[in-house]
């Protein structure tokens, strides 16, 4: 089943409510693009490629909701919807990338009636979602070449089917290596504060019978220093032109410790996540989420009442810690500025 999809029977956007996993499997339904934006912010759906596909369907929904009776009025409504969707989460560039792709589709001069635009937008959102699955699989088999029989892989956050339309990025590489019959073991970072590792990655690995151990985030350094990790695989929400990689908070620490211990560190990144317009990672907007995610666990307070807390959702790993970047078009090695430009082209 796909993480997010268009239901053609009801003309609504449906998505797995990931806030409820692994306890309950619920599919939420949306008929308003503003609610789709809220679902992205509140993390019903999360993971850079999944957010992008969701925003694509959100734009298709906005076109259907609009009462516009001429092309110009519909394009104005779509610009307004784009602003709402773009504001939902700032770090994953796939969101803005997908919204921009939808706006480009809508503005095609050959589409001269509102209904033609509506139809084209739904087709484009569907194509974007279908492509995501295809390229994830290509990326996964490219990355699986890095995995040897017997490897232990350290993984952060959730980068599986749930973080994409289907299959996954870094976790997709792990699925591909497993499918190839390699005996692998995964160390799964729990990934505080939202516990995407414990709740979602553990759930996906368990379903596929891939051997793993869940570890607290603070244990990763211990396992790397004591020779129990062969490779670190992560995803990315935005990769800058120089190869600096923004990903789930805690990734930077993993990369530094990996380098210190001579362990290869590979982000697995669709080219839609590479933002050549940003020279380096310092320019990537880092989402700061509410303090309640830090001071509570599942609604239960774990700190004195009223204290202050900081909650950056992502960090930037400078490219000097990155061994290589796995994409659907191949694995990119330094110098990243040159090679990323070539591969995105
Ligand atoms: O806050 P999240 O759960 O959306 O963060 C997800 C990640 O950090 C992933 O590693 C990233 O989106 C890329 S993987 C598909």
Key structural traits:
single chain, 345 residues, alpha/beta, Four Helix Bundle (Hemerythrin (Met), subunit A), Rossmann fold, 5-stranded parallel sheet, 4-stranded mixed sheet, globular
Explain the overall architecture:
- This protein is of the alpha/beta class.
- It has eleven helices and 16 strands.
- The chain has two domains: 133 residues, Four Helix Bundle (Hemerythrin (Met), subunit A); 203 residues, Translation initiation factor eif-2b, domain 2 (Rossmann fold, 3-Layer(aba) Sandwich), CATH 3.40.50.10470.
- Strands 6-5-4-7-10 form a five-stranded parallel β-sheet, with helices on both faces. A four-stranded mixed β-sheet has the order 11-8-9-14, covered by helices on one side.
- A hairpin with a 2-residue loop joins β12 and β13.
- α2 runs antiparallel to α5.
- The radius of gyration is 20 Å and the shape is globular.
- The structure holds 5-S-methyl-1-O-phosphono-5-thio-D-ribulose.
- 5-S-methyl-1-O-phosphono-5-thio-D-ribulose binds next to α2 and β9.
Could you give the order of strands across the largest sheet? 6-5-4-7-10
Rg over alpha carbons:
20 Å
- Fraction in beta strands: 15-25%
Bound small molecules, deduplicated: 5-S-methyl-1-O-phosphono-5-thio-D-ribulose
Number of helices: 11
What is this structure's SSE topology?
Layout: E1 4-7, E2 12-16, E3 27-30, H1 33-41, H2 48-65, H3 71-86, H4 93-106, H5 114-144, E4 152-155, H6 170-179, E5 185-189, H7 196-207, E6 212-215, H8 220-225, E7 231-234, E8 238-240, E9 245-248, H9 251-260, E10 265-267, E11 274-275, H10 292-295, E12 296-297, E13 300-301, E14 314-317, E15 325-327, E16 330-332, H11 336-344
Parallel strand pairs: 4-5, 4-7, 5-6, 7-10, 8-11
Antiparallel strand pairs: 1-2, 2-3, 8-9, 9-14, 12-13, 15-16
Bound molecules: 5-S-methyl-1-O-phosphono-5-thio-D-ribulose.
């Amino acid at each position: 089943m796909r993480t997010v999809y268009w239901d053609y029977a009801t003309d609504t956007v449906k998505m797995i409510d990931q806030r409820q996993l692994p306890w309950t499997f619920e599919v939420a339904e949306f008929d308003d693009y503003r609610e789709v934006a809220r679902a992205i912010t509140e993390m019903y759906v999360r993971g850079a490629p999944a957010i992008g596909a969701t925003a694509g369907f959100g734009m298709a929904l906005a076109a259907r909701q609009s009462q516009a009776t001429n092309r110009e009025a519909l394009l104005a409504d779509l610009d307004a919807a784009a602003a709402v969707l773009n504001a939902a989460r700032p770090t994953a560039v796939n969101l803005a990338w997908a919204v921009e792709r939808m706006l480009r589709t809508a503005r095609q001069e050959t589409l001269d009636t509102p209904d033609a635009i509506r139809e084209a937008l739904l087709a484009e959102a569907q194509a974007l979602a279908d492509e995501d699955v295809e390229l994830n699989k290509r990326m996964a088999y490219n990355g699986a070449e890095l995995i040897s029989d017997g490897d232990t892989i350290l993984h952060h956050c959730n980068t599986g089917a749930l973080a994409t339309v289907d299959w996954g990025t870094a976790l997709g590489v792990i699925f591909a290596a497993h499918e190839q019959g390699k005996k692998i073991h995964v160390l799964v970072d729990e990934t505080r504060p939202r516990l995407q590792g414990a709740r979602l990655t553990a759930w996906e690995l368990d379903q596929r019978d891939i051997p793993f151990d869940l570890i607290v985030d603070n244990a990763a350094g211990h396992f790397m220093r004591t020779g129990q990790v062969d490779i670190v695989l992560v995803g990315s929400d935005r990769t800058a032109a120089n190869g600096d990689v923004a990903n789930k908070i805690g990734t930077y620490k993993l990369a530094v410790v990996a380098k210190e211990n001579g362990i290869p560190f590979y982000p697995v990144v669709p080219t839609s996540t590479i933002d050549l317009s940003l020279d380096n990672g310092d320019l990537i907007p880092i989402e700061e989420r509410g303090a309640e995610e830090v001071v509570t666990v599942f609604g239960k307070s774990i700190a004195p009442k009223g204290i202050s807390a900081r909650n950056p959702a992502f960090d930037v790993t400078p490219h000097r810690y990155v061994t290589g970047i796995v994409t659907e078009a191949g694995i990119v090695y330094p110098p990243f500025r040159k090679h990323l430009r070539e591969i995105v082209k």
